[in-house]
Design a protein that fits this description.
By secondary structure, the chain is of the alpha/beta class. Helices cover 40% and strands 19% of the residues.
């Protein structure tokens, strides 16, 4: 019988545990006490020590930790400390996502073989789909107008930015996209969107209805937020990037700018599909 451990995690990981159990794995869990499992071959461990003794391959949260101190475990009754956990998992294989360099160093000290899912190209590409669909869903839920014919500005032309521009165009939006590189600006224009150079962003904030940020670096600073308030006072900003995000939150609050935190969308809007993407990637790793 194949054994696997599931440690903490959100609804994606809960669904993943069910999927592995259906595939005839014996699944040991810790930090998922609040989850309601239907499969019988899912065994809840009462302690971290018991969990560590039962399995050599452990799958955990995405992101693994939000604060660097505790494992991301919303279905746990207690906080699970990262450092203590890594000491217990000595010589094991740990598969999780968005693992910080500091945590990787701690894992190395405990001879833990770490695999970061967010460093696997095929997984990150598939993970974009629920992120983009969720971003548009969030926009619809938080505005009183249609996406069709609205002026949408996407900050960044990376993986998420590319697909988001395409999907917004499909809804009939007037799509603007900001990028830094000349090559990206050329592609934005070639794809029929309105290209905005980052150096000229402040002059391109007129009449914007929604801004989607995909850049994990402060783009909308004091001067740009002030310009946005003056030229697009009803504009909403949807934050998709990981910390620190792309908005100066202190200044945004000062100007009364509407910021919608939409980080971690795959686990919120499409946890089952996101779990399938994780499982597909894990099967390749485990095989």
């Amino acid at each position: 019988m194949k054994n696997i451990g599931i440690l903490g995690g959100d609804l994606r990981i809960v669904n993943l545990a069910e999927m592995f159990a259906k595939d005839k794995y014996t699944v040991y869990t810790y930090g998922l006490e609040k989850a309601d499992f239907l499969e019988t071959n899912i065994i809840r461990c009462r302690s971290l020590s018991e969990f560590s003794e039962r399995c050599n391959v452990i799958i955990s949260a995405i992101p693994f930790s939000k604060d660097g101190v505790y494992i991301n475990s919303p279905f746990s009754n207690t906080e699970i400390a990262v450092e203590e956990t890594l000491q217990k998992l000595k010589d094991k294989k740990l598969i999780a996502g968005a693992i910080s360099d500091k945590i990787k160093a701690l894992a190395s000290e405990n001879k833990i073989d770490i695999i970061d899912l967010m460093q696997i190209e095929s997984f990150t590409i598939m993970n974009i789909i629920p992120t983009v669909e969720g971003a548009i869903q969030v926009a619809m839920e938080n505005t009183d107008f249609t996406i069709h014919n609205s002026n949408c500005l996407v900050l960044g032309f990376g993986r998420i930015g590319k697909l988001l521009c395409k999907r917004l165009e499909g809804f009939g939006a007037n799509v603007y996209c900001m990028a830094r590189k000349e090559k990206d600006l050329t592609w934005i224009k070639a794809l029929g969107h309105n290209e905005v150079c980052i150096d000229n962003l402040e002059n391109n904030l007129d009449n914007k209805d929604i801004i989607f940020n995909t850049v994990p670096s402060i783009i909308l600073d004091d001067s740009k937020l002030k310009a946005l308030k003056e030229r697009s006072p009803g504009c909403s900003i949807i934050e998709l990037a990981s910390k620190p995000g792309g908005v100066d939150l202190r200044k945004a609050k000062e100007y009364g700018t509407k910021i919608i935190n939409a980080q971690g969308l795959p686990g919120k809007v499409a946890p089952y599909s996101a779990a399938e993407y994780i499982k597909e990637t894990l099967k390749k790793i485990l095989n």
